[in-house]
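User: quick one, fold this
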Amino acid sequence: MKILIRNLSRETTEAELRAMFEAFGLVEACNLVMDKETGKSKGFGFAEMPKHMDAKTAIKRLNNQNVKGSVIRVKAADVPGASS
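Assistant:
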């Protein structure tokens, strides 16, 4: 399941983001979206977890958590062409 993480502190690293989700299971991929001009985080990213139940648990537990002074928003990513 692909997961969207929004409202991240600009100081949050990809390694920290991955570690947050690995607490709930295997993470296949994790990336922050970076600004091409500045090279800094745009404040959101994605994680991919192969086990649906692990992903749902991570979403439930991490949504609305305060991480580095920002209350993050976590939800299943809308994937074009995918059926729920």
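User: anything notable?
Assistant: The chain has two helices and six strands.
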